[in-house]
Amino acid sequence: MIQKLSNPMAVSHLFAGWEETLIFSCLQGIMGDIYVPADVGGPESAAAYLGDFAFFAGIPSRELVLHRPDSHKQNFIIMVPQNEAWSRLLEECYGERAYRVSRYAIKKEPLIFNRTELQRNLLALPNDCELRLIEEELYLKCLSQDWSRDLVSQFANYETYRRLGLGAVIVKAGEIISGASSYSRYKEGIEIEIDTKEPYRRKGFAFICASRLILECLDRGLYPSWDAQNIWSVALAEKLGYHYSHTYPAYEIRNAD
Fold first, then answer.
1. What are the C-alpha distances in Å from 213 to residues 34, 105, 139, 158, 177?
2. What is the spatial order of strands in the sheet that 227-228 belongs to?
3. What is the Cα–Cα distance from 156 to 159, expressed in whole angstroms?
4. CB of 35 within 8 A of CB of 22?
5. 75, 95, 188, 176: which is closest to 130 by C-alpha?
6. Residue 32: strand, helix, or coil
7. Which domains are assigned to the chain?
8. Per-residue pLDDT, 83
9. Who's near 215: CB < 8 A, 6+ residues apart?
10. Cα separation of 98 and 78, whole Å?
11. What residues are paired with 58 via a beta bridge?
12. Residues 109-137, buried b or exposed e (16+ Cβ, 10 A)?
């Protein structure tokens, strides 16, 4: 039997040393949930679920890996193992549905950002475009399109986004063409999500949006955490001042329920 913890910090020791802000969000009770087997002697394994992600820690548990919470039954999920033992279990449980990929951790260095350079980056905005922070109208526009939905979709409604989220988008002729926003929120900062509409990619728009979002985070005393899905995301992060940390495995699982 699997249960959702009402006191997530009770298993914080299982995730010790794992610098993933989505886990922080779950442990702090801000966003996401922690699930554990209902062990009599106290949980020895745990799964942190937030959005499209699940993180597995502690002693590998088949029951936990196969359990899909009702609130996370989408057809696509990214499962991240704490170690190779969890990796083997994920592969064993999901077989061909578990597609192993590499993701890229970016160092968390609060003092690396150069405000002057970030401000200078904004000057590259074309004259026919507008750079705006996400307010209700833009929140709803982001939700209305597949490519931009993840910029705001982890927040149940605009009021929740206004309270916990933060983002910037570029608007051209009334249309959102690129954005940088908070995929999630934890006490000390946000996890950045970057998206650009297909015809406008590789044109520097994401770089401008990210620069604006980082500046806003610095003004609010929040850390703009970055985790890269691919090498292009790593390159963009490094252009903004971040530094690569390490590569880690994850499993993209479809139709897993």
1. 29, 19, 15, 18, 16
2. 2-4, 33-37, 45-50, 53-58, 76-81, 244-254, 98-106, 227-228
3. 8
4. no
5. 176
6. coil
7. 2-106+250-254 (3.40.630.110), 115-241 (3.40.630.30)
8. 98
9. 115, 118, 119
10. 9
11. 45
12. eeeebeeeebeebeeebeeebebbebeee
Contacts for 112-120 with beta carbons within 8 Å, 24 or more apart? 112/241, 112/242, 112/243, 113/214, 113/218, 113/240, 113/241, 114/241, 115/215, 115/218, 117/241, 118/211, 118/214, 118/215, 118/240, 118/241, 119/211, 119/215
Q: Which two tokens stand for residue 42?
A: 């106290």
Distance CA 110, CA 224 (A): 9
Give CA–CA dist 92/175, Å, rounded. 45
Angle at 186 between CA 137 and CA 23, to 5 degrees: 120
Mean pLDDT by 10 residues, the chain (257 residues): 94 97 98 90 92 97 94 88 98 96 97 97 98 98 97 97 98 98 98 98 97 98 98 98 98 77
Looking at residue 189, its amino acid is: G
Residue found by looking up tokens 């916990």 in the block: 164
**Two tokens, residue 159:** 């009021």
The residue written with tokens 């394994």 in the block is: 45
Length of the chain: 257
Joined together, the tokens standing for residue 57 give 């820690």
Please give the full DSSP string across 48-103, using - where no structure is assigned: EEETTEEEEEES--HHHHH---GGG--SEEEEEESSHHHHHHHHHHHGGGEEEEEE
15 residue type, one letter: F
